[in-house]
Structures
1.
Amino acid sequence: MSDNGYKQIVILSGKGGTGKTTISAAFASFENDKVIVDCDVDAANMHLMLKPKSEKSHEFSGGKKAAINNEICIQCGLCETVCRFDAINDFKINHLKCEGCGFCFRVCPESAISFTPSIGGNYFECELEDDSKFFYAKLFPGQGNSGKLVSEIKKSAINSIKENSLQSSNKKIASINNPDVNGGKFIIVDGPPGIGCPVNASISKADFAILVTEPTLSGVHDLKRLVELLNTFKIRMGIIINKSDLNESVAEQIKDHATEKNIPLLGEIPFNTEFVKALIEGKNIVEVDESVKKDLLKIWEKTKSYIIN
Amino acid sequence: MKEVILSIASGKGGTGKTTIAASLASIIPNSAYIDCDVEEPNGHLLLKPKINTEEFVSKLLPKIDPYKCTVCGKCVEVCEFNALINLKFEITLIDEMCHGCGACTYFCPGKAITEIEKPIGVIRKGLTEHGILFIDGLLNIGEVAAAPLIKAVKRKIAGSKNGQAGYFSKGEISNRDKTSKQNEISISSIKSTDDISQQYLFEKTYVIDSPPGTSCSMVEAVSDSDYCILVTESTPFGLNDLKLAMEVLKTIDIPFGVVINKYDASYIEMEKYLEETKTDLLMKIPFDRKYAVAYSKGILPIVLYPELKNEFLGLFDTIKEKLMMVENV
Ligand code: SF4
Ligand code: SF4
Ligand code: SF4
Ligand code: SF4
């Protein structure tokens, strides 16, 4: 399902630390017509690398929270009994544990409990150096609702495309990194870790998923779970093995799994300390290392051939 | 102090949190390793426990009896999560949206709702070769809410503040296990293991491996800990995520210190920040490819590299001091 011809590509890795964000940023730099969305709302990082030139902040309403007015409360204890999330103790509500179900508020015989919307975080609509749009979000610590926030930033990313195409823009699209890459329109989504609710939200409506993994036993373990998840959503995918020479035999296991599941291997990237160096310098890997750039470009072209088919 | 809960968390994934948690569990006498990273539990790959019990965990979902339901709409009104939809002739539930709060069942005037169990994951329990208690949770694929499973995993911790159901003990494991003899041997052997010359300070140390991030799952995993170790790495990403995790721990009032993994001296901002915020820096583990290779094979680096093991013994000493301080406050 694409919006105005934009293909949605989500980059996932199961666990963190596989170089997913670095690779997402590199791929994004190869394209001119794109929107980038960082869906790791728990620990957004991509903005540190992309360094947007401007950003507009929006509030995200995370749902309601209950609070007890202790002047009215007669300490009957009913609220504590009904709350299934252990959020009420000694006639006080622990905000971090409160799921916002409203059960206590409805059950209190004295109407001593208030139940009001709370702000769950912020999301940011940014513009990058090359005038393309970038979205990221920050969930307030300890909040639930990360799936909802992911859906919300994806929605605003898609809306921005619609607005933009209405104005049929005259922007100065120019990619510094690769002016002659053949065009396409992409929504590049840097996905959250895990397989839980924010991941589900990030892969909804995706055209293709890129799974970045590393040859470690835990990498394989996480990869298999992700593949299973994506299969239940019927989303097409491909695999990139990062740090591929760290453990050749585990890398083979990954390839075997890919073959067995009929998933294309998009490429392998040998272990390279430049990844960390680029991070520390706050740069895109493609600006730091020519050979990595070449490898990544090849992988991206291959990925695109799968996306388009 | 009888029992302590030590949690290992990280704002960002992939910092080496599991390796550090598993290493600590291996060197701390009388420890248990509890993997609360239920979306991607990896600790079993390093500790290789022998699993002897598996227990399914479910959540409660409302089930509406169409014969009793008058389609009055009360349940739809009380559901904060829009999980119930009024189709005029019946009420339907969207499983994925339901948080299992129980409000609809309680408020239904016709008592038309009962609650049924839906499996969300499994808790596995076992012992490692060296007699470390092992517990982890594995979330079913497609299940969105990790926090309830984490809560169930934590209930297995005896003496934990949440846990009336905390009944888990070594004795029980061996009773349940058909090959109990073997386990008893490994339990007694750990007591005589002489490379642990540390004095027994705590009757039991629960090492909790928390999910990465700062969301509700992480809060669920680290809450009730006596101390939390935040693992980070020497990059701007690591620092950014560390700050978020520190904020959470301050809010829920859990004392903590920081371990910098993949330490890179050229990234000075990290230590500058720790100094400025007067945060305890517990340990620095330099980046070394051989550690990464050991990990890739599912081997704890401390098993192969004694110098690293010494560092961890030192870390445990530091943490013991911190815990005593916490205790005395
Ligand atoms: S709103 Fe729900 S979760 Fe929050 S305190 Fe009340 S009953 Fe508990
Ligand atoms: S139900 Fe209301 S009156 Fe009763 S303890 Fe709770 S807040 Fe107080
Ligand atoms: S509250 Fe009970 S009777 Fe009313 S619509 Fe819901 S299930 Fe039916
Ligand atoms: S249990 Fe709570 S969340 Fe689930 S349908 Fe009923 S009211 Fe809604």
2.
Amino acid sequence: MSVTGTPATGVPVTGTSVTEAVHAAGGMAGGLLLPWPDTDGEPFWQYALRGELRVQACADCGLRRFPPRPACPRCHSFADEWRPTSGRGRIWSFVVAHPPLLPAYAEQAPYPVAVVELDDDPTIRLVGTLTPSVRRPDAPWNAVPVSRLRIGAPVQAVYQILAPGVAVPRWALTTP
Amino acid sequence: MLKDRTAIVGIGQTRFAKTLDEPEKTLACRAVLAALDDAGIDPAEVDALASYTMEETDEVELAKSIGAGDITFFSRTGFGGGGSCATVAHLAMAVATGQASVGVAWRSRKRGSGVRPWTNTSVQLPTPAQWTRPFGLLRPADEIAMLARRYMHEYGATRDHLFNVALACRNRANQNPAAVMYDRPLTREMYMDARWISEPLCLYDNCLETDGALACVVVSAERARDCRQRAVYIHSAAQGLPAQHHGMVNYWNDDPLTGPAWTAARHLWKTADLGPQDVDTAQIYDAFTPLIPLSLEGYGFCGRGEGAAYTEGGALELGGRLPINTAGGGLSEGYVHGFNLINEGVRQLRGSSTSQVPDAATCLVTAGEGVPTSALLLRN
Ligand SMILES: [Zn+2]
């Protein structure tokens, strides 16, 4: 665990690590790849399991950074904290994946995948699948018609449990 | 400075095909021995080796099989196709600094008949795969398609621009009997009707899957004058890993569309007597069509955002402003991690290309854009 010090808000993450849960599941769930966290990424996945989208920030100079890494590229501090975000963002770009794909992915293809820039900090961008509504975190990956997608469309993070102890953020289309 | 102190004096390659029967190690040996024979240099004189970290025939296996002498320099460059030109650059540095005298760079790959790396689910590299693969962004084509759509959105690039790239490569392959796509012309209709791989990229925006091997030989400029073939001088060379770069998933910095080409280019031109305006032909890494407009911008052939428009009016064809990938490139000759672009650059400067640019005197060769990269500026 790389959580040292106290996060700026909320309680520090504790308990069984997501990494252990992913290992227990063999890295896969229903033929889909689970996130395989490294030490730096572990807190992100722990917060995701709680339904929170947090990003790593430097505890000394405050610079947010993604993906998580051991040191601050600006001031070189190793002290970090995990800052909450609003979970709101906009589609920066997207693809629609068609076969050839791994079998469990091919079953859902063609499916869109987006890169979303966060409203809190547009240089923090997250990859994710899409769902038509915040009420449908478990919707199939191909539930959003491609015709509804456009760069700049507003989205909100929702969380899908993929395996015991493992959740991933997805992006629900919202109305501006 | 490296400037013209070393030269490529031999090139060799196997056949390219979807499936070759011989193993990668055999293909590697064949390509290396062919390159040495082309140079007129005895394999026992080889004392430097360079390849990619992804190369599976290692130095020990290669050296003992070709009958190399004592090796005093060997290096590997990472990041897949980003390492192609770096292999030659490292040999040039080794020879120029006296660490070795005869260097061989090579790449052997059975990608056509072998497995595609992205299908391996056990190699879940934690960083950065944890931020992309669980979300269905599985393949290099998906990762680049994401940047491609953003590029099209920001600069008004269209599928027709990407088609211009695919067509130029295919037209050159149709003139090159060694190309996998030699007898397979491409039309705009075929391109526009092709199946998607990862929208906005279709089948023809993706490189081939090829079995094959290539090699080249690097010696000092003095030694080059005594070799069998016309010397092709390494005028300048560069590698590029930009600040806050993230590889093919370059989504997490201020400007994801400014890739490693920009970094490599700055160093390449800084150490050269020439500029982009002096380049007669370019062999530009083309695992995916959008890498061409991005590279044209990075290497300074046009301004930021102008790479797509640059491809208009036959600019990339023979007789155009900048004929590219004159043997067909990764899109249509064969995809061997970009090494075939190096050998074609050498042929252009020897005057022996199947799509010869008249009086070609300078050739830019680039490695994979979108990953830590490398480039060579060759002259004759
Ligand atoms: Zn800092």
